[in-house]
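Try this one yourself first.
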């Protein structure tokens, strides 16, 4: 099974808090952006090309961040009686809109049509 199923929501929140500074840095360097499914997506960037340690950190942190986000999104479904697994995409779109709103000017965000732009 995937680790997503075993991570507790509290652990997911802690992981996100712990990774926040790195993620802000990735976004500032345009190495990651907010996609239209509520997840962080790695983008080709100069810093990761020239620095293998940075590239590994980027890969590891984005993976953990996205696992944490999925735990939290699935938790929303569990906590709401009117929702079920089929609603996951709807929840992801809501999270994507919130992430886009929270993005800082100049950061990469994915539009509904799949294209990417600087906010």
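Now uncover the answer:
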């Amino acid at each position: 099974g995937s680790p997503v199923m075993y991570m507790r929501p509290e652990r997911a929140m802690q992981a996100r808090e712990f990774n926040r500074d790195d993620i802000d840095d990735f976004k500032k360097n345009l190495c990651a952006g907010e996609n239209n499914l509520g997840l962080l997506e790695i983008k080709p960037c100069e810093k990761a090309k020239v620095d293998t340690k940075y590239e590994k950190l980027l890969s590891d942190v984005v993976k953990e961040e996205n696992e944490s986000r999925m735990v939290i999104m699935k938790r929303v479904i569990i906590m709401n009686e009117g929702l079920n697994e089929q609603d996951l995409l709807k929840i992801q779109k809501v999270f994507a809109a919130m992430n886009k709103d929270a993005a800082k000017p100049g950061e990469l965000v994915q539009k509904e049509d799949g294209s990417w732009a600087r906010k």
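Discussion: The longest helix spans residues 52-79. The helical segments are 9-28, 46-50, 52-79, 88-102.
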